[in-house]
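[Q] Does anyone have a clean structure-token version of this?
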Amino acid sequence: MSLNEPVFNKTIYEKLLVSRRFGEKLVLLDKTGSTNSWIAGRLDDLDIDKLTVVAETQTEGRGRFGRRWFSPPGVNLAFSLAWRAPETFKLLNLVTMTAGIALAEAVADVTEAEPKLKYPNDLILAGKKAGGILSEFKKTGTGSYIVIGAGVNVNTEQDSFPDEIRDTATSILLACGKTVCREALLAIFMNMLEKWISTLTTRGAGPVLERFYQFSIPFVGRGVTVTIEGETVKGSVAGLSDIGELMIETSPGVIKKINSGETVFER
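[A] Here you go.
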């Protein structure tokens, strides 16, 4: 890391961390291919579910469907962790939404910004994308895991964004007008994630969906196109099912439920 780049301060992070389920052990990397891949390659390690990896630079950082994630070193957050999910748990979209809620609550806690969530995985500030969640199922000899990764534009300046995303991307700094403590944001995210994962596993999807709706950009009734493995589904959004599937009315009275796919909402 360059001497001019801020160093992540573990002491600040540890003072604010309350969770004993997530983020108890922190690995800080100057560079890695992808934090999700780093975690996924170590799922057989002891106490992997207590570990979080943070990278200043990702050479292969990605979002959903393999899209590259832009993140300059020293100013943003790129991190991943592993949750040892119950064997019967298969609702990946709900985990993504749960992590999104935790991220939105963390942003609201440490800033004066008003975060929104775009179904299923985007953090939106002032109408522009400031972050995203990538959740992936992984199965090993020791059990089933969901790897949860996040990329958050924390203190990125406007002129640092590449030309192709400058009009659609933002950072927390740009949205609230002041530098944000990355360590505080990450610690509070871990605290909120523990709360909401516990809620999901003990009370079911209902409270998670209710909270997600409170943060979400209005999308019911909007036109939508979803692409799933080459198949395209078009219609208008009827809402979310009781397990977090996107319900699309493809023709009058005909509802199709979608739990994965590239989702594009009409403006």
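[Q] Thanks! Anything notable?
[A] The chain has two domains: 10-215, 223-265.
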